Amino acid sequence: MSHEQKFALVTGCGKGGIGEALVKEFTRRRVHAIATILPSESSEHLTEEGITWFPLDVTIEKSVADLKQRVLDLTGGSLDVLVNNAGICYTMTAIDTDVNSVKRMFDVNLFGPMQMVHYFHDMIIRATGTIVNIGSIGGIVPYMYGGKKPSD
């Protein structure tokens, strides 16, 4: 690949989600998109589009380390964009809260992006790149809580 080729790595590219839409848009803009999906998920939606993809579980350090090596080999050591999109959400009342589910949310939503930045920061710095952290779909799917405030 030439020096001019830009690379974007996007986590959480399951079928029909924000990650899938992002890698398709990067590809449309001639950025070499690198998608990640959980090892247990189907990659058909990415393969059909000709999008480079790798399995990744952001909560497993070896998975992140393996991904870094693959991305290094592909890009030559430079990464223009890292989008930390992988995330999970469980909706539950305080009474029904399952502590293990909450721990899993923190592992994926907080520690996952931290681990990705830890492993990929040198490649981002080399490219003078950008890190984007997506922490919620609240801007897309608003909750009624905020909307009812003016009526109080």
From TrEMBL:
<feature type="transmembrane region" description="Helical">
    <location>
        <begin position="124"/>
        <end position="145"/>
    </location>
</feature>
<dbReference type="GO" id="GO:0004806">
    <property type="term" value="F:triacylglycerol lipase activity"/>
</dbReference>
<comment type="similarity">
    <text>Belongs to the short-chain dehydrogenases/reductases (SDR) family.</text>
</comment>
<keyword id="KW-0472">Membrane</keyword>
<dbReference type="GO" id="GO:0019433">
    <property type="term" value="P:triglyceride catabolic process"/>
</dbReference>
<dbReference type="InterPro" id="IPR002347">
    <property type="entry name" value="SDR_fam"/>
</dbReference>
<dbReference type="GO" id="GO:0005783">
    <property type="term" value="C:endoplasmic reticulum"/>
</dbReference>
<dbReference type="InterPro" id="IPR036291">
    <property type="entry name" value="NAD(P)-bd_dom_sf"/>
</dbReference>
<dbReference type="GO" id="GO:0006654">
    <property type="term" value="P:phosphatidic acid biosynthetic process"/>
</dbReference>
<dbReference type="Pfam" id="PF00106">
    <property type="entry name" value="adh_short"/>
</dbReference>
<dbReference type="GO" id="GO:0000140">
    <property type="term" value="F:acylglycerone-phosphate reductase (NADP+) activity"/>
</dbReference>
<keyword id="KW-0812">Transmembrane</keyword>
<dbReference type="GO" id="GO:0005811">
    <property type="term" value="C:lipid droplet"/>
</dbReference>
<protein>
    <submittedName>
        <fullName>Uncharacterized protein</fullName>
    </submittedName>
</protein>
<keyword id="KW-1133">Transmembrane helix</keyword>
<keyword id="KW-0560">Oxidoreductase</keyword>
